[in-house]
Design a protein that fits this description.
The chain is α+β, with helices and mostly antiparallel strands. It has a single domain, classed as YaeB-like fold (2-Layer Sandwich). A five-stranded mixed sheet has the order 1-5-4-3-2. A hairpin with an 8-residue loop joins β2 and β3. The N and C termini lie far apart (30 Å).
Amino acid sequence: MIIKYAPPFLNILKKVNIRIRKRVKQQILVFSKNPYDPQLNNHELTREWKGFRSINITGDWRAIYTEKRLEEENIAYFVALGTHDELYR
């Protein structure tokens, strides 16, 4: 699976503290090996995020992505990063 990032995702990533940045890197590495690893709590979203999926970064931080298919390759396109309240309220 190819992993890509939307500019807003990268902008937020640059602004968060180093602990969150390191954790994002760790969780994306886990995701690249197995997107459905239980520690990620990968799940479909509803309402305004219908069609997207979320993975856990920390107990409170989430990364939201969508899956796309390009020829023979699956692409995970990460579009949002934030705390649970920031993303879902």
